[in-house]
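Problem: given the chain below (91 residues), write out its structure.
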Amino acid sequence: MTKAAQGHTGVTLREWIVERVARHVEMDPAGLSVSVPLATYGLDSVVALSLCGDIEEEYGVELEPTLAWDYPTVEALADHLAARLAGSTAR
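Solution.
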């Protein structure tokens, strides 16, 4: 586990993902709901790949490029990432 991944909970992952998504889609993070599909905010394939790259770089995990479609909300994505970082192989 990378240093960045240590101690992250689902809540802190959600906050981190909200900040990244908001930056990519150029909106205020306060306006982004964790339970609304990311596509609603303009997440497209280019942004999804960029987000995967951000996660891989920050947390040191390899991800499928379909991650944002497989886990379409911040909440689902954060829960999946928390499980991966905890050593679970859940997908």
